[in-house]
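Record type: ASSEMBLY
Status: queued
Input:
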Amino acid sequence: MNLKTLVWREIWERPSAMLTSTLAILLGVTALVAIRHVTVFSEREVGQQLQSLGANVLVLPKNSTLQDYYSADLTEQTLPESHVASILLANLPGVERLSPKLCVSTKVGDRDVTLTGILPQTEFQAKAVWQTVTLFSNKHEGCKKAACGPKTYDAAPETLASQRTIDQLKGNEAVIGADVADFSGLKPGKSLTLLGEKLQVLAVLPRTGTIDDSRVFAHLHTVQRLTNSGEVVNAIEVMGCCEDAAGKLVPSLAELLPDAKVVTISQVVSTQVGINRLMSQMSLLVLGILVVVGGASVASTISSNVRERRREVGTLMALGATPSLVARMFLLKAWLLGIVGAVSGCVLGLIVAKVLGSQWAGVSVKPLPGLMGIAIVAALAVTTLAALWPARSAAKLDPCSCFQEV
Amino acid sequence: MHASRVRHERLNMFQLHEVTKVYRRREQEVVAFKACSLAITQGEYVAVVGPSGSGKTTLLSILGGMLSPDCGQVLFDGESLYDLPIAERTKRRRERIGFVFQTFNLVPYLTALENVQVPLFLNDVANAEQEERAMALLGQVGLGNRLDHKPSELSTGQQQRVALARTLANNPSVILADEPTGNLDPDSREAVLAMFDQFVREGRTIVMVTHDPAAALRATRRLTLRDGEVQEAMIRHAA
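Status: finished
Output:
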């Protein structure tokens, strides 16, 4: 016999009495863990998007949506390819690189893929009309980047995944995403047939966790020819030298291309950032609810437990229990309720986050042990504080109550 | 002179000097217990009788170190009980005083064995020794085959025997009993009183509050309380 046995036996005698407060803690911790997990992974996702797209500005057809861009579903709306030349000729400060794109759905084997036409950077140099401008060397005022102007980029085709542009790509070559490589078994040097044209695989991109994993990149003009779409593109990614440049480029580009929609990446992710901020605030609210509802429930349960067990406590004191032991008896009970509620809440919260995270926020959630540890400590702190007063009142009970009739 | 005082204190298990306990309710004062001088010596079997509300339970609580008197001094084995810190007073009670209750006061969610282990656990006795001693005590009161029964699974007589085994767990020198036979059938009552006789023969002091005249007759001394005051002290020799 020890204190733990005494407390455990009492809980098991009437588990239903503890159900309400355990449930309150469980639900509070579940909500807290679920919301924080989704928020954290959503923030990471936004961070990754920002990182992968850099200080980009997107030039999109007027009627297309950002969702169309992210899902690579831009086949209906197009822009004239001449807009690329217009941007270059305008010689706007801060423009580092351009990446026009044309997307079309097709199949590799029996699997759907997005064939994306891109223009290699060497093409920009080759075009006679563009040779007249001081391409990509126009530093904007107060540029945060150490050295604006012409850059030496890694020529490896795999850098397309991170830099959004490719140095060289011939008309009969293709670069494939990681998913496409996985399901088709294609490797560099092998060939694939797309829209009746045989293309040689130049490289397989590293996995990015984005729509790029299921793309096949080919030369823009090859895709235009195969789809008979003419000299059009679905989007033009404009890589600014830094985030400041991206912000300043928007009004200039909007003025230059009035028939296009010009957005910055920060605008693209602003909704998601806003939702993340809201969810962060929500998690604070849930923490508040956990403190108030969970705490009140624990306090009420332990207080009522002390009242019901007055004679038992009196008897224990008559048998030699000290007031501190009596207080510890009720605190330990509260801790057990807190631990059961918090651990179950963590497990349930993680399941909810995994399900809702992928369905609602489109993020893959993994356990964050630190966060769950904090949730458990918070729940224990709440239960301890809530049980403190009833435990103290139990310790102050009159031992003579052992003589009172039932 | 000094040796004489020590001997005297050893003989007196309890000494009450000018002890008064007053309850105040709605601006009215009620004297619950008053004793100018009362001594209970080691090995005495004292029956405390009197009508309801006469202060019997108050006396028991004061003797048990659980109810501080408003004035006066209570000596327990020569020590002023209420001059001790609460922790020390609790320790004296745990180690040297056993309680028997009218309604047994067993912890309902513990088995008979665990109930007897409770005072041992409170006295920091190791778990293995707790079990060993509790089993021996339950065997002693004839409940060796009811170790894992909860109080609700035992008859009232069996419950009181579990309570008696619990009382003896820390081998107390004093037993304070509050109506120990009040809820028992005649056979169980007789069994309990026989055990009390045995405790006295073992040298323990018993102070038993009772309404049962037959039980009171088994005591070697009877204190009658009326309106909180000890009105009569009849002493007879032990059989």
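Annotation: Confidence is low (pLDDT under 50) at residues 1-10 of chain B.
Annotation: Chain B has eight helices and ten strands.
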